[in-house]
């Protein structure tokens, strides 16, 4: 009997495991979002139940400074959000999702539907977010809701962008901060641009 059990166990271990479905939520397998240049993209999770975060995204202990843990709220009036709220903002035609990282990081993979406004340029590019230039800087009466993100909870780029935007006149209550950033987005196996 032992050889039969051993043989059966060997066959079961050798057979490819069928992955359990990996949804975004219990009722949502994917979310379709518009892209800034037209078209659309589907955001879903990687369907490999054994998928792991690798490379720099798997690092847990980065030198501080500069990679210090950021506060949950980067500035008074800013709303911190999670992945589901960010997906809703990506689907909202009135909202703008901004990857606040430097251009090479954005080009290395971002959240589908996000535009790139590096944190160093955020205060100068408020016109792309619904503000109008005026003699004192910007009139942000018609500012759009914006979500900012960067590399993760240890990245200061999008918190810096939020503070600079507020200093330049952008209303804090129109800013949403996705603190998890690319590290948590990737950890959850969500779609990343190539």
Features:
single chain, 194 residues, alpha/beta, Oxidized Rhodanese, domain 1, five-stranded parallel beta sheet, two-stranded antiparallel ribbon, 5 helices, 9 strands
Shape: globular
Largest β-sheet summary: 5 strands, parallel
Helicity, as a percent range: 10-25%
Computed over alpha carbons, the radius of gyration is 21 Å
- As for the number of domains, it is 1
Topology:
Blueprint lengths: L1 H13 L15 E5 L5 E5 L34 E3 L1 H9 L4 E4 L3 H5 L7 E2 L15 E3 L2 E3 L6 E4 L7 H11 L7 E4 L2 H7 L7
Parallel strand pairs: 3-9, 4-5, 4-8, 8-9
Antiparallel strand pairs: 1-2, 6-7
Folded structure, characterized:
- The protein has 194 residues and is α/β, with parallel strands linked by helices.
- It has a single domain (22-187), classed as Rhodanese-like domain (Oxidized Rhodanese, domain 1, 3-Layer(aba) Sandwich).
- 23% of the residues lie in helices and 17% in strands.
- It is built from five helices and nine strands; from the N terminus they run αβββαβαββββαβα.
- It has helices spanning 2-14, 83-91, 103-107, 157-167, 181-187, and strands spanning 30-34, 40-44, 79-81, 96-99, 115-116, 132-134, 137-139, 146-149, 175-178.
- A five-stranded parallel beta sheet has the order 3-9-8-4-5. It has a two-stranded antiparallel ribbon with strand order 1-2.
- The longest helix is centred in the first third of the chain and has 13 residues, at 2-14.
- The N and C termini lie far apart (52 Å).
- The model is unreliable at 4-16 (pLDDT under 50).
